[in-house]
Amino acid sequence: MTGFDPDMYRRLVDTSPEGVVLIDAQGTDHPVVYANPAFEALTGYTAAELTGRNLRLLQADDREQDGRHRLRDALSRGETCRVLLRNYRKDGTLFWNEMTVLPLRHPDGCITHFAGHHRDAGERLRIDPKVAKDSLSGAHQPTTMAIRDDRLTGLFTLPYLEELLKRDWAVAHREQRSIAVFAVDIDALDLYNTTFGRAAGDSTIRRVAHVVSGCLRRSSDVTARIDGGSLIAFAPGLNHEQALRVGHLMAERVREMRIHHPRSAVLRYISVSVGVCAATPGASDSPANLLAKAQQQLQLAKKSGRNQAA
After folding, report:
1. Which residue from 178, 180, 310, 280 is spatially nearest to 232, judged by alpha carbons?
2. 266 Rama class: left (phi>0) / alpha (psi -120 to 50) / beta
3. Cβ atoms < 10 Å from Cβ of 5
4. Per-residue pLDDT reduced to its tens digit, 240-291
5. In this predicted model, what pLDDT tens digit does every residue of 213-231 receive, in sequence order?
6. Residue 67 vs residues 3, 18, 123, 199, 295: alpha-carbon distances, Å
7. Angle at 174 (CA atoms; ends 168, 180), nearest 5 degrees
8. Beta strand extents in 152-283 (DSSP E only)
9. What pLDDT score does 128 carry?
10. Which of 60, 148, 201, 242 could disulfide-pair with 88, CB 3.0 to 4.6 Å?
11. Whole-angstrom Cα distance, residue 17 to residue 36?
12. Is the dihedral of CA 265, 97, 151, 197 positive or negative?
């Protein structure tokens, strides 16, 4: 039997279609020691630019994400973790990074490295066209419902919202009317989870999701949960001024619940930041661009002090 060439391991990782990164677990700041070509393509950074740096650079200033807390918690316990994070490429464009990170151990049991496997969730989490068609026609098949519904909140999932947005985008383009998108984040959710536990955090996510979706009451309005305390919604027919009023209403209604959050630097209660974007579709526009602009406005709301719409 022919022996296995050790260099084959490196070539196997180098040619993987999934982004693979090796992190030094012994370093003071967990620096990158290797990144494969797929990860370079995913992020826009070269391996040389990443080597020696912590991957938090991919979060830019968008650090307040529940997934970051779950990732830190799992790795501190030496456990494998799978999370979805908002990341930003070298050119500043947003992508949803679905990552699985696992510890690599020396024979003596000591963790020497972390291996990260990364993929663009926007590329992977797509609905089969036939399933999407069945869903829109009202067919309630078990596989369809699993794709449509977020189990924690009862809202839609992001892939299903994207399919609905494509449909309504085409209608708005044809009729030349505006469509609005809202990107919503629960402020300091990671600190809330640390203080009160995961179960309390999940309960708060459900309550906030119900309040946010309740601000959009028309049958054409759609709300979905992305991950953790991140929500996305769209409303056909709203111009920017109208949409901004709805965004402020979302923040106000969440404040009115007065869910105690003693470690929040914003209030002593749970609050949300809301990014609002509205546009009349043009020939060069796309639903993905509108979603990205809403996320950019969300970051502006956060930088401006949170607990508000921008």
Report:
1. 180
2. alpha
3. 9
4. 999 999 999 999 999 999 999 999 988 899 999 999 999 999 888 899 899 9
5. 999 988 789 999 988 899 9
6. 42, 20, 19, 15, 17
7. 40
8. 156-157, 179-186, 222-227, 230-236, 272-279
9. 41
10. 60
11. 9
12. negative
- Sequence ranges of the domains in the chain: 6-123, 127-303
Mean pLDDT of the chain: 86
CA-wise closest residue to 121 among 42, 7, 26: 42
Q: What share of the chain is helix, strand, coil (3-state, %, to 5)?
A: 45, 25, 35
Vertex 291 angle, CA 148 and 257, to 5°: 70
Tell me the C-alpha distance between 219 and 236, whole Å.
Answer: 10
Assign domain 6-123 one CATH number from 1.10.10.10, 3.90.78.10, 3.30.450.20, 3.40.190.10: 3.30.450.20
3-state secondary structure of 263: coil
CB neighbour burial string for 117-151, b if at least 16 within 10 angstroms, e if fewer: bbbbbbeebebeeebbebbeeeeeeeebeebbbbe
- The overall pTM is greater than 0.85: no
CB 119 within 8 A of CB 18: yes
Q: Which residue in 86, 56, 98, 123 sits closest to 292, CA to CA?
A: 86
**Which has more pLDDT, 233 or 94?**
233
Angle made by CA atoms 253, 168, 83, in degrees to the nearest 5 = 60
Cβ neighbours around 198 below 10 Å, total: 13
**Is the C-alpha dihedral spanning 184, 188, 189, 190 positive or negative?**
positive
What's the CATH number for 127-303?
3.30.70.270
Local structure of 59: helix, strand or coil: helix
Q: H or E stretch including 295?
A: helix 287-303
Reduce the DSSP state of residue 305 to 3 states and report it: coil
Query: What tokens were used for 93?
Result: 């464009």
